[in-house]
Write a structure and sequence with these properties.
single chain; 118 residues; mainly beta; five-stranded antiparallel sheet
């Protein structure tokens, strides 16, 4: 999959993925998911296909999320998938605005299931 411009509520996969019925699984380091959204919170249900930790990095509009980082990541956007669960990745402070979220997986084998918003 390759990148494309995103309209509101659109998402894309970039890199090597297997897109299944219930989830998408990354096959190589550098696989990404991007989403153009309008919400205070952005959550993603993630797991590790191999049960090994999968490191990732989140950006919001191309930058580290800083104060808008969710509880599942550091302010510099880094985090680790250790178990299958809901990860809060963005928690916007102040006025809710449209944003483009990108998560890059630094290791292969992540399983991405679904986004939720708050």
């Amino acid at each position: 999959y390759a990148p494309a411009p995103l309209s509101l509520n659109a998402w894309l996969l970039e890199g090597q993925w297997i897109d299944g019925r219930q989830s998408a699984r990354s096959l190589a380091p550098g696989a990404k998911i991007s989403f153009r959204f309008h919400a205070r919170d952005l959550h993603l249900v993630l797991g590790s296909a191999s049960r090994k930790p999968v490191r990732f990095r989140v950006t919001l509009d191309g930058e580290a999320p800083g104060a808008d980082a969710g509880v599942g990541i550091a302010s510099n956007g880094t985090g680790v998938v250790k178990e299958q669960r809901l990860y809060q990745l963005v928690r916007q402070k102040g006025v809710v605005r449209d944003g483009t979220f990108t998560i890059e997986f630094l290791d292969p084998g992540v399983e991405a299931f679904s986004f939720t918003f708050g």
